[in-house]
């Protein structure tokens, strides 16, 4: 997958990103749920002001970098920057399916091996943005990293099955942006956070 893939509007990148495979060190996952955030055109975006802050600076950088933010005093969430420099565009990774690194993910999420997880724990390993970020072992310390220059990362194109498009989740106070249909997920995937 070339960097130019991300040098587009996140509304176009998001559905095309479904089915792609992201590797961070020893964990490889297939992306099955995403949300697009369109900078100053989107009241729900962290970059809505159009001006970078210390926290949001990576969103205004080059496409293909990551933006990791800390929320609710306990969770990290992973985004990939899109568009052109200074636009503040990104795609939030919301859900995935684990391809490899199951034991490492289980250790990070539940402090035990994958084989000892309950069915409920297996189901809830990476079906949500904070869970996915924790499974990859990423924090705000990684925010701003270039996917194409950091040897820990590899991203490969993939194919998704039937794609569902809906409004985004958890942004009730974002004005008209609350109703933007910029969440995309693969129908039938166990990695989707909420059907």
UniProtKB/TrEMBL annotation:
Recorded hits in Gene3D superfamilies, A to Z, give: Methylpurine-DNA glycosylase (MPG)
Give the first-level EC class, as a single word.
Answer: hydrolase
InterPro entries in the cross-refs: Formyl_transferase-like_C_sf, MPG, MPG_sf
EC number of the protein: 3.2.2.-
Question: In which domain of life is the source organism classified?
Answer: Bacteria
Q: Does the keyword Nucleotidyltransferase apply?
A: no
The record's keywords, sorted A to Z, are: DNA damage, DNA repair, Hydrolase
Mind telling me which HAMAP family this protein's record contains? 3MGH
**Hey, which family's this protein in?**
Belongs to the DNA glycosylase MPG family.
Quote the protein name from its UniProt record.
Putative 3-methyladenine DNA glycosylase
């Amino acid at each position: 997958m070339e960097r130019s893939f991300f040098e587009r509007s996140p509304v176009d990148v998001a559905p095309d990103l479904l089915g792609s495979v992201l590797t961070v060190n020893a964990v490889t996952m297939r992306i099955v749920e995403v949300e697009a955030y369109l900078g100053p055109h989107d009241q729900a975006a962290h970059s809505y002001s159009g001006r970078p802050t210390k926290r949001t600076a990576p969103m205004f950088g080059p496409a293909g970098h990551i933006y990791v933010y800390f929320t609710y005093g306990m969770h990290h969430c992973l985004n990939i920057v899109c568009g052109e420099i200074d636009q503040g565009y990104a795609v939030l990774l919301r859900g995935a399916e684990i391809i490899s690194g199951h034991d490492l993910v289980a250790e990070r999420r539940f402090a035990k091996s994958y084989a000892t997880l309950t069915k409920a724990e297996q189901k809830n390993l990476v079906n949500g943005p904070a869970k996915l970020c924790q499974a990859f072992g990423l924090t705000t310390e990684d925010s701003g990293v270039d996917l194409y220059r950091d040897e820990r990362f590899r991203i490969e194109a993939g194919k998704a099955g039937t794609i569902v498009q809906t409004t985004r989740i958890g942004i009730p106070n974002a004005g008209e942006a609350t109703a933007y249909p910029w969440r995309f997920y693969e129908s039938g995937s166990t990695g989707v956070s909420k059907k």
